[in-house]
# Entry
Amino acid sequence: MMIIGVDYHPSFQTIAFLMEETGECGEQELNHSDGQAEKFYRDLKQRGISVRVGMEATGYSRWFERLLAELGFEVWMGDPAEIKAKRVKKRKTDREDARLLLKLMLENNFPQVWVPGPENRDLRQLLWHRHRWVQMRTRIMNQLQALAMNEGLSLEEKTIQLTRTSAVRKAYLSSLGQSTSARVVGAAGPYESND
# Structure
């Protein structure tokens, strides 16, 4: 098995690796823009090498995580705060960070965090969007309520007044359980709604 510590940046990554069977180790910098990183990992897969990758949890590595999952490689995400606390030297470089991640993995001292899978992430995204829509609807209803109260009307009366088209008014009144011949009094004066 090949164990790789990855110091990930959006445009490149610095890796420190160790081949457990042979004891071969090394460091390398891989660019993302020219496909060097993807080629490196796909080459490992073609050679039939099993790989474990350890990196700090970051929000900019989705494509990289998807690539590793597609290749069937094991990914360990680490807690950045705990990793920083385990750093001995004050001076921080990309190579030292990659070496530290590799060392923590080899010592079985890597502070792993749970990361949701792709399906779970999609579901969370849908829930987040729904939550935002509910918040938006609540804000609009609160603004309509404030507008109606400023005009001395109930929210239902103001909504009917604002929706002057007969089809919309009918649908709204029926949703309230009222007949469509309801008489509404508002700031513009009384009017009959017997559409």
